[in-house]
Amino acid sequence: MDSHAEATVELSTISGNVEALCEHVAPAAVMAVVKANGYGHGAVPAAHAAVDGGAAWLGVVHVAEALELRRAGIDTPLLCLMAIGSDQHADAIAASVDLSAGSAGMVRRIAAAAAGAGRRARVHLKADTGLSRGGATLADWPSVLETARQAEAAGSIVVAGVWSHFASADDPGNPSIEAQLAAFKEALAVAEGAGITPQVRHIANTAAALDVPDSRYDLVRVGGGTYGLATLPGGPPPWLRPAMTLRARLALVKRVPGGTGVSYGHRYTTSRETTLGLVPVGYADGIPRAAIGLPLVWARGQRWRIAGTVCMDQLMIDFGDEPVAEGDEVVIFGPGDNGEPTAQEWGDTLGTISYEIVTGIGARVPRAHRA
């Protein structure tokens, strides 16, 4: 580690996670979702690793993310999951990127872009089955289907997929899961009645892919699971392994007397003479400011509490009489093999999810990708 901090990403772990997921959900195929810079792990290397592990599809949100993968030479089937009117749809179509549409207007917009690209657009029609986010409601669904049927007949698009997204698949037994499965089944039946036959049907996210077999259909979209994460209670199953470890090196070590106030607001005061260590990462790097006082850092073979307020660029640890030195390594989170905190533990402790922790690691923390 040459810099003040580093996020190490084990690409073989990503490949292994995807391989295990493929086995778990077979015969459904796996879409590895590499949006948001591969959940903070690096989109292009994560995509390569996922494909090496058997991912048949890749998923992103924005067209710009899709084109980044295409420029990197990745030709795996690729879906933009969010329908955004301002995106460069013609460029996506020209690059063989599938697009999502959850309204008749978006279908028409994509069909027009296909004319500009000089080739058919591959479209996944999205039904809102209860998340109330993107996608067409049951009332609007027939008009979306009719618009898509007309565009398909005109040679502008091909309906490559019909899909939806769960609201509460990470809450096992939540009644909304069965309700959404029923609504998706109805949406598929209405599509069939309208003469629409999608190539793939997909609704399962990571939690559903792991826990709801009836949701798998032809394809599952695995985001967090690709990186060894899950939002299910207790986190991912043991056969999924976290791929990222966040490390830093102590930038300063000093002895201070008892009664010394530490960091902004003096929200921590030393109880006796002690050694303070400065870790050069803070909330600008993705360390939640709310982590004050929590035993969420690892150094010299044990846990340590964060002493005082997490600052923009740094945090402090009270090491007591531990013989630490400038340059000693501190692990913020990792796979947990040696007792270090995991992103899952950070999320659970702070009332959020592991996805927010890993995607929040800022751009000034370099990623080191290991095969």
UniProtKB/TrEMBL annotation:
The active site is at 35 (proton acceptor), 264 (proton acceptor). Pfam families: Ala_racemase_C, Ala_racemase_N. Substrate binds at residues 133, 312. Its cofactor is pyridoxal 5'-phosphate. GO terms for cellular component: cytosol. GO terms for molecular function: alanine racemase activity; pyridoxal phosphate binding. The keyword Isomerase applies. The modification N6-(pyridoxal phosphate)lysine is found at residue 35. Residues 243-370 form the Alanine racemase C-terminal domain. Its EC number is 5.1.1.1. Transmembrane segments: none annotated. This is Alanine racemase. It comes from Trebonia kvetii.
